[in-house]
UniProtKB/TrEMBL annotation:
Catalytic reaction equation(s): ubiquinone-10 + hydrogen sulfide + glutathione + H(+) = S-sulfanylglutathione + ubiquinol-10; a quinone + hydrogen sulfide + glutathione + H(+) = S-sulfanylglutathione + a quinol; ubiquinone-10 + hydrogen sulfide + sulfite + 2 H(+) = ubiquinol-10 + thiosulfate
Species the sequence originates in: Caenorhabditis brenneri
Protein name per its UniProtKB record: Sulfide:quinone oxidoreductase, mitochondrial
Annotated Gene Ontology cellular component terms: mitochondrion
The family this protein is said to belong to: Belongs to the SQRD family.
Length: 430
């Protein structure tokens, strides 16, 4: 396996070593952030990163790309340019974990070993779990902001939309960025109004949840937004099939506990945006690290594997109860920075992840609700009313957070807003 690194890079060769002090599996936000932190602490060549893809995307920007507010290219970088100095990029993918031997196997049969490992494999999009969805994505009217291959299509579909049902779905399964489907719906409303065709459209947000959004604190303001925009919210609806020939979306009706009732509902669509169910990557699902759901089984506070103490998790691949967002990764990194360092010194991990997650809910082309929370409730940072749509929250989403991601998070410098929150709470007004 070989790859090209520009002369200005100082990353080491991808084939120079078979054993690493620390092996990081995954080169997304969590993987790069973890590798960057420890590449600065450990001797040169001690850190390896297993990542097969050449392109790295700022996925939180996809909602804006799908709304014509950013370009896809602005959210893409070459992975080779992001690998931290003195780390080794193994451009391959893991097919087998053998943690009892502190080893893994790559596609092609090559084995790597490690003293410590961070698993940051993310969550995979599973359009294949919805009958007909993969085929439908290649037809007119069907798109998804979750995929770099279909996000630009969403904007084009909205620009050419002439009338009918525009349906946005949320699955009955784990999903990355749970607010993304309704954000896309709100932005579509703004575009259609600007085009003068909103009266010809019926916007529907169909969610498997029994309410518009998970964290309770933001339900009322989001219901108000949906009402003002005349968006019909269908709860307890899970998309199970797309018939692109008849342009029909079929939903199973769920009970209050999220279980199928046996009833279905079919809706014709002119535009269908699919929020795909997600799962852990295949190699992780079938590994000793996984729980019964397939996600990495970790201690929810220390982020340490429950079975293998020299292994930690970061990001969407874990079974922690937090929402799967890029913002969560910042607090994950803060936690493992301390805990993995302690384990490397032969000590017990003591730092605790606070469950932080954030979702800037864009509700128009220039305003947003800045939702910050953990499983217990709101965990807001600013002294302002974050439940009210505002231009400053949109400015943060559009301009500040991308810069913070590229220059802070993936370089291992941004550990989340926890310290800032302690300060601003002194000025918080309810």
């Amino acid at each position: 396996m070989s790859f090209t690194i520009e002369p200005t890079m100082k990353a080491t060769s991808a084939v120079c070593a078979k054993h690493f002090k620390l092996l990081v599996v995954g080169g997304g936000a969590g993987g790069l952030g973890a590798a960057s932190k420890f590449a600065r602490k450990l001797p040169k060549g001690s850190v390896g990163i297993v990542e097969p893809h050449e392109d790295h995307y700022y996925q939180p920007g996809f909602t804006l790309v799908g709304g014509g507010l950013m370009t896809l290219e602005a959210n893409r970088r070459k992975e080779a340019k992001l690998i931290p100095r003195d780390a080794t990029w193994i451009q391959n993918e893991v097919v087998l974990f053998t943690p009892t031997q502190n080893a893994l196997t790559l596609k092609g049969g090559e084995d790597l070993s490690y003293d410590y490992m961070v698993i940051a494999m993310g969550a995979h999009l599973r359009f294949d779990k919805i009958k007909g969805a993969l085929e439908a994505l290649e037809t007119s009217g069907v798109c998804s902001n979750y995929s770099p291959f279909h996000v630009e299509k969403h904007f084009q579909e909205v620009l050419t939309f002439k009338g009918g049902n525009a349906i946005y779905t949320y699955p009955n399964a784990p999903i990355k960025c749970a607010g993304a489907p309704q954000k896309a719906c709100y932005i579509t409303d703004s575009i259609l109004r600007k085009r003068g065709v909103r009266d010809d459209a019926k916007l529907i947000y169909a969610t498997s949840l029994n309410r518009i959004f998970g964290p309770e604190s933001y339900i009322e303001p989001l219901e108000k937004v949906a009402c003002e925009k005349e968006i019909e919210v269908k709860t307890r609806r899970n998309l199970i099939e797309v018939d692109s020939n008849s342009k029909t979306a079929i939903f199973e009706v769920l009970d209050v506990d999220g279980a199928p009732t046996g009833d279905t509902e079919s809706l014709e669509y002119s535009l269908l945006h699919i929020g795909p169910p997600c799962s852990a990557p295949k190699a992780l699902r079938s590994s000793p690290f996984a729980d019964k759901t397939g996600f990495m089984d970790v201690d929810g506070e220390t982020l340490q594997s429950k079975r293998f103490p020299n292994v930690f998790g970061v990001g969407d691949c874990m079974n922690t109860p937090n929402a799967k967002t890029a913002a969560s990764v910042s607090s994950h990194l803060k936690t493992i920075d301390k805990n993995l360092s302690q384990v490397m010194l032969g000590k017990k991990p003591k730092s605790k992840y606070d469950g932080y997650a954030s979702c800037p809910l864009v509700v128009s082309r220039n305003s947003a609700i800045l939702a910050e929370f953990n499983p217990e409730g709101p965990l807001e940072t600013t002294p302002f009313n974050q439940k009210k749509p505002s231009r400053w929250a949109y400015f943060l989403k559009r301009h500040i957070l991308p810069a913070l991601y590229w220059n802070g998070l993936i370089k291992g410098y941004w550990n989340g807003p926890g310290t800032m929150r302690k300060f601003t709470r002194m000025f918080k007004s309810e």
